[in-house]
Amino acid sequence: MITLVAAMGRNRVIGREGRLPWRLPAEMRHFRRTTMGQVVVMGRKTYESIGGPLKGRTNIVLTRDPDFRAPGCEVRHSVAELLQDPRPLFVIGGAEVFRQLLPCADEMILSRIDADFEGDAFFPAWAEDEWEVVSRTPHPRDAENPHDFVIEHYRRVKHPGRAGRAD
Question: pLDDT tens digit string along 110-136?
Fold first, then answer.
């Protein structure tokens, strides 16, 4: 099972200069609850922007660099190698890793923020007819969270010729 977990603006921005372009504590708490105790997959740039492994999770860094080492993390050097892992995987970014793994994903948990942001990293477009919305949880702005957002849980209903992983 592969689940993509992302927060994005209306314009699909997910990052700017290696950082989130918003501050939404409620969304960050949701991310922690969703990924705690799970296996999270991230690209090298995301790993470096975080500054180390996420606590309470098994961390996998996906990188093409054969010499890359990440203390406290497992390292995979290709999508094919990653897909051999039988554990449920929660993919947390960045843009290139989302793009590579979207065709393999079974679920997406997307926090859709009701604002446009300037950024240089984007969540990939997806074929809406391949997905169904399982749940939608709105989070209105409040004193702590300056933007409305909704958490949408998607399940794939049709795979575009996925190969390489038997769930």
Answer: 999 999 999 999 999 999 999 999 999
CA separation for the pair 47, 92 (Å, rounded) = 10
Q: Which two tokens stand for residue 68?
A: 């890359």
| Token code pair at residue 99 | 């793009």
Q: Are 148 and 137 contacting, i.e. CB atoms less than 8 angstroms apart? A: no
Measure the CA–CA gap between 166 and 87, rounded to whole angstroms.
11
SS3 47: helix
pLDDT surpassing 80 at residue 146? yes
- Structure-token pair, residue 72: 């406290």
Instruction: Kindly tell me the sign of the dihedral angle through the C-alpha atoms of 151, 38, 67, 104.
Output: negative
- State the Cα–Cα distance between residues 97 and 85, nearest whole angstrom: 16
- Domains of the chain are 9-156 (3.40.430.10)
